Amino acid sequence: MDCDQLQQLRQAAQCCWRFLQNGERKNIIELKRELGGYGYDGTVESLSAESIVHGWKEAGWIKISPNGSELRLTEAGIEQFNRWKEEDSLWEQGTTETIKLAKRLKAGEPATNLRKIAQIIGNGILTSVHDPYTDEKALETLHKLKGLRVEISKTLRLLTAPKTRMAAASVASFLRDLNAETGWQWELRAYSGTTKPHRRFLILQDKSIITCGLSLNNINKDEVLDRIPMGDELAGHDRDFFDKYWVSATPVL
Questions:
Q1: Which of 72, 121, 149, 213 is most buried by a 10 A CB count?
Q2: Do 137 and 99 touch, CB atoms closer than 8 A?
Q3: Could you report the per-residue pLDDT of 102-115, keeping only the tens digit for each?
Q4: How far apart are alpha carbons 24 and 12 in whole angstroms?
Q5: Pairing of strands 223-224, 104-105
Q6: HSE of 20 in the Cβ direction (CA atoms, 13 Å)?
Q7: Which letter does DSSP use for residue 227 in this model?
Q8: Strand partners of residue 158
């Protein structure tokens, strides 16, 4: 697919996806009629509505219902839509430079939030994650950070809260597949008993701490984002806390 066709896919999406951000579904016949109204009629200079929908599906941005009557955005589609919004915002500001990202995460900007987390980690190496709600989506977020050139230890330690048998089996299976696919040796452990501290943080190799106030399974929230230097008392507390509970935690298998 050439550049012009990709631009048409983008423009069509930005016209029609505005109300599909929270799991809403859209009737495909109505959508194609709407696309036709925007000029996507298959003429020499324009893709057809059918080609637009097919292109979105091939890109992994939408999922079509089993009976072929409806579609909804995938997580990749939502992230792409937010990325386009960010690019448009930069254009409106009249700059092509990298936007200075504030140390705060915002609801409605999951793609930007992911970039903010990557930016604050910078050249550091992520070695440990403390998140009581670590699950498959949290592991996917970490994988996306790798895609943003965040360096993550091949022996990453993940500490979480106790899980039900079904939840533990599900996340363990996902982690085994991820490790097998990448050659990593990430390890997930859960607290013994009913311990469930609320604080979430990341530990870097230089012993500094990243606090983001939310779980990695949902970064679409308003939270403070900060990096605490290794010599800070709070950073020392978090490292000691992690090491203490890691020793007694149970591997999630």
A1: 121
A2: no
A3: 577 888 888 888 98
A4: 17
A5: antiparallel
A6: 25
A7: E
A8: 129, 188
User: What would the two tokens of residue 249 be?
Assistant: 């935690």
Average the pLDDT over each of 7-16, 88-97, 163-172, 192-201 and give the range with the smallest value: 88-97
**Any idea which residue has 């254009």 for tokens?**
91
- Full DSSP string of 112-149: HHHHHHHHHHTT-EEEEEE-TT--HHHHHHHHHHHHTT
Residue that has been written with the tokens 């048409």 in this structure: 8
Structural tokens at position 114: 């992911």
Report domain extents, the chain: 3-81, 104-251
CATH architecture, domain defined by 104-251: 2-Layer Sandwich (3.30)
The HSE-up count of residue 57 (CA atoms within 13 Å, CB side) is 13
Tokens 């930069």 map to which residue? 90
- Is the pLDDT at 22 greater than 60? The verdict is yes
